[in-house]
Each structure stands twice: as C-alpha cells, then as structure tokens.
Amino acid sequence: MSKRDYYEVLGVEKGASGQELKKAYRRVAMKHHPDRNPDNDKAEARFKEANEAYEVLSDSEKRAAYDQFGHDGVNPQGMGGGGAQGFGDIFGDIFGDIFGGGGGGSRSHVQRGADLSYTLDLNLEDAVKGSNVKIRIPTSISCKTCDGSGAKSGTTPEDCATCGGVGQVRMRQGPFSVQQTCPRCQGAGKTIKDPCHSCHGRGAVQENKTLSVKVPAGVDTGDRIRLSGEGEAGLHGGPAGDLFVQMNVKAHQIFERDGRDLYCEIPISFTDAALGGELEVPTLEGKVKLKIPSETQTGKLFRLRGKGVTPVRGGAKGDLLCRVAMETPIHLTKRQKELLHEFEEIQKSQGDRQSPKKTSWFDGVKKFVDALKT
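That's the Chaperone protein DnaJ sequence above. Prediction below.
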C-alpha cells in the first residue's frame, strides 16, 4: 500500500511554515492518540503516520529531500519503522506545554509561590466613596536564614540522583516514551542533604503581615484587587505569588445597591399619600427634599437622578430610587376611630370612583368565582 503525501497527512499546504506544521501535527496527533482511542488500530496507524510526517517535514534537510524526491528522498527505516522511535522527543516538544513536561534539558527546583485570596468586608459608604484599608494576613515569606534556598548555611541543594536535576523521569511503554514527575524530588530537580533549621528545607517560613489596600470608589461585591508579589513566597528562592483581595459589600440598613443604582423604601402616612406633601429623604451625600403628589399609591417609585453610584470602571453616575410604602396608623384614639368611620361613610356615598383598583379587583374575583360554577 502506497504512503499518503506527508502534507496531506497533516492537512497543510506544501509551503506551510514550521509553526503551521507544529499546530497541524498537534491537532492530528491529539485526535488519534492511542490513549484517546484504545483498541483502535486505525487511529494508532493514523497517529504513527502523523508522527512520521512531522519528523520529516520539521527537519529542513529531510523536508527539502522529500519535496524534491518524495518518499524515496527520505529513509523511513531511520525513523524506526514509521516514526515510533522518535516519538518521545517530538511528544515532548509539541505537547510539553499541555502536559507539563519538556522534551529534555534541566528543570530548576525554583518554584513560584502560590496566589492567596482575601475577602475584604466593606460598608456601602466606603465602597461607594473609596477608602484605604489595612489588612493583616497570614502568609509565607522567603527564609532569611538560607535566603530561600532551603539548604543549611554553607551548603547548597544538590542535583537529584534519580532524575539528574531534570525533575522528571522517562519511562518506555512499548514504542512510546512517557515522562513522569520524579518520585524522589517531586519534580524539584534538587535534593537538600542538610536542610535549613529555620524553614526545614522549604525555603519559606510562616508569618503575619499587614498590608495597606487602596479601595477605589465604586467597587461592588465580587470585584477583586490584585496585589502583585504579596502572595506566598516561592520555594527555594522562587518569585512570590500574588494576593487577590475580593470585595464583599455588607448589607446597609437603608439602601440596597443594584449596579450603579441605589434603592430605599420610605414609609409615608395615609394623609401624605392622599393629600400630598414634602419629605426629607436620605442619600449618601446628605438629605434632600422629595415632593409627594396627592393620591400617591403605595409602591410608587420616585427617581432622584445622580444620587446613586459612579461605577468603578467608569460611566455615568446612577440614581436613587425611592419606593413609598403607606403606613397604617396604630394605637388609634377614640376620636381618630370616629373620624375614620365618618370618612368611610362619606367614601361609600361617593361610589366606586375613589377606589378604582379595589373595584376592579372585586370585579375580577366575581368573574373568577362565576366561571368556577359553570
């Protein structure tokens, strides 16, 4: 059976660049990898075919010979019968960034520190206006005794005897070469014979530190501030991680926030709702006057423009929306009850025109009940 054209195998044009070849090979190899297609002889054959094609086309000399003479211009036997022998090196180069292993070379035992997360509770006023807040966090810092190396003063970490300082070991499984984290040094590539007495070989020690966090105006729950280099110290002298401060705006006794807008509920008396009036309304900037028109119904929203929040990412300032709630009076005197009864009698004499919502509701109830009877 004749071999397919190598460019066809990888699905690229003849003039494809090296980067295009690498991307194409990665796509085909991942699709037909034996681990993804167990007991699939056809997929395994496609995988070996792609490996062979890439090994030829990724080499400038072999590619030139192939372009001129085709399959006769290259020697398949030199590739271990379909490229299986060279698979380990190609796998490392192409998939190292995916599976965390390189194709060779040394690996430093230096490791970046972990990122930390801190939840900062804020009241609404500080979140809207911004503030400077001091926080105290437990973290690890680079050990001063050993300068972060983890080794006792006067000594240095040694290359791991198992992996030779690479941090990984290579194992053969049939025709394939698989890289695994070194079981002795856990991927560090180094071992410490005499650990530092202060950090016990970690290169970092636990400590509490106080930081000043500048909270910008307009932040809301879920927003994060990144403090570079304020996370955990790196191992063996590696760079520190970052600290992410997450905002949590506490519930307010008066206002509720929805993005750039604020909401509040204002209780009003029956007489203010019926006759109208003027109320003092609180805002985050002080009190303002709100005019209540006569015949205002409970639940009505009044908008005070520009009395909300300026978003932290910019944009127009929001509004304050005041929802009025008519409050029923309690602890009525005898005279008040008499006046209310008198008012009720007068209202009944006026018919339904003074209570349109009540009338329409009872009409709806009557129609509903009548429909159930039929």
